[in-house]
TrEMBL record:
The lineage of its organism: Bacteria, Bacillati, Actinomycetota, Actinomycetes, Pseudonocardiales. It comes from the Bacteria. Pfam families: DUF1707 (PF08044). InterPro entries: DUF1707_SHOCT-like (IPR012551). It comes from Kibdelosporangium aridum. Residues 7-58 form the DUF1707 domain. This is DUF1707 domain-containing protein.
């Protein structure tokens, strides 16, 4: 075994492996059941060698995972409409980040890592979007407004931490920002 494969993994490397799996399920190369199983194994992985079996059959695409789109607002307000990305990392510190994802098409998947410290993150998604919130809040608030209409819409997976701030997800067009 190569010495590089016994090096301990960082959380960022695990996130990158999950991004590869997200891309594979979005492209139809693995099923949602396989995605769930492999994701559990990725988070349990301790070394780079532990990741090899989970990504090896995904080919060169696994090595070409696109970088996350980053948005940072510090004592300010930043409005973005990220396109053609699978992940957005948003950070609001005493400010606001507004992400307009309302143009997402059915079948698209995006991960939003939203961190807020004394700030807010507002995310606008299509009416039919499936929103999965996996994040945490400490003296803060996380809210998803509206109910997904129908099935087959885009999937927005939100993680990250809110500390003395908030994250709000709105369904429909971003009109008032």
């Amino acid at each position: 075994m190569s010495g590089n494969l016994v090096i301990r993994l960082s959380d960022e490397e695990r996130f990158e492996a999950v991004r590869v799996l997200d891309a594979a399920v979005a492209d139809g190369r693995i099923t949602w059941d396989e995605h769930a199983e492999r994701t559990d194994l990725v988070w349990a992985a301790k070394t780079k060698g532990d990741l090899v079996p989970q990504l090896a059959d995904l080919g060169p695409v696994a090595a070409q995972a696109e970088p996350a789109h980053r948005v940072v607002a510090t004592i300010s307000k930043v409005i973005r409409t990220p396109e053609a990305t699978r992940e957005v990392k948003a950070r609001a510190t005493f400010g606001a980040v507004v992400l307009n994802l309302s143009g997402m098409r059915p079948g698209e998947h995006i991960r939003v890592v939203a961190d807020s410290f004394c700030g807010k993150v507002a995310v606008f998604v299509p009416e039919n979007a499936v929103v999965i919130d996996e994040g945490t809040a400490v003296m803060g608030k996380r809210s998803i407004f509206g109910v997904a209409e129908g099935q087959g819409g885009p999937v927005v997976r939100i993680s990250g931490r809110v500390t003395m701030g908030n994250i709000k997800v709105f369904r429909g067009e971003a009109r008032h920002w």
